[in-house]
Amino acid sequence: MKHRSWAIYLAVGALAALVAVSHALQDHSRAVKTVPTSRKIIALTFDDGPHPQTTSPLLTVLEAKKARATFFLLGENAARYPGLVAAVAAAGQEIASHGYRHEFPNRQPREELFADLARLETLLAAVGVRPTLFRPPGGGYNDLLVADLAARGYATILWSVDPRDWERRSAASITAAVVRGAAPGGIVLLHEGDCAANTPAAVAAIIDRLRAEGYEFVTVSELLQYNENQP
Ligand SMILES: [Zn+2]
Q: What is the CATH number of domain 31-224?
């Protein structure tokens, strides 16, 4: 009898511990694809920059349209083009981390990934930015990685709309795909670089089309504040 009640206590205790752990993971360590909200807000994001072909045109479009967006900068490119990093910061756009070398972080030893994150943090400190959002290159992630990143001070950000702009698609085709996929709380995945040369033109059209539908453009950090499922 005594043994059986001990077994029950142990089972209940183990279950409580499991629930506590899963709550902790949910609260602090969930990769974000979209933010639950009824407001018509959406976040444009640009990966792989800064880049001489796209960063300045993107900043010009965002400035002309008075829209905010989030740049997930790559460390190697930030090191090559510090002037463009400074330009993104000076324009008041959000700067986030896409790692240093475009390695898939779920295949990278953790110490190596964290050293890479620190290298980009050092570069960004020069423009007064400490990134708190990380987008895994290739979208490679798992729950443990997301939890470790949260402990390291980063929310893992994915996306809900992927127009595959890096496939050298036309501005019209990129725009159509984003307008089709847009929804409140959405995160739009766009890119910088030679392969995404039409993206700045697409962004101008995307902002016009979605604004006509009543959308506001916010940074990812702002978007996260509108999570209606948060207590
Ligand atoms: Zn990338």
A: 3.20.20.370
Q: What is the pLDDT of residues 149-192, one digit of tens each?
A: 999 999 999 999 999 999 999 999 999 999 999 999 999 999 99
In which element (H, E) is residue 20 found? helix 2-28
Q: For residue 138, report the distance from its CA to the centre of ligand 1, in Å.
A: 6
Q: For this structure, is 116 an active site residue?
A: no
CA angle 92, 97, 101 (to 5 degrees): 135
Distance of alpha carbon 97 from alpha carbon 77, whole angstroms: 12
Q: Name residues whose C-beta falls within 8 Å of residue 149's C-beta, 6 or more positions apart in sequence.
A: 29, 134, 155, 156
Residue 137's closest CA among 109, 119, 113?
Answer: 113
What distance in angstroms lies between residue 73's CA and the mean position of ligand 1's atoms?
A: 9
Encoding tokens for residue 61? Answer: 């479009």
What is the pTM assigned to this prediction? 0.88
What is the token pair recorded at 50? 């800064």
Q: Determine which one of 28, 47, 116, 143 is catalytic.
A: 47
Query: Residues 48, 51, 165, 191: which is the catalytic one?
Result: 191
Give the chain's count of helices (H) and strands (E): 9, 7
CA of 211 to the centre of ligand 1 (A): 27
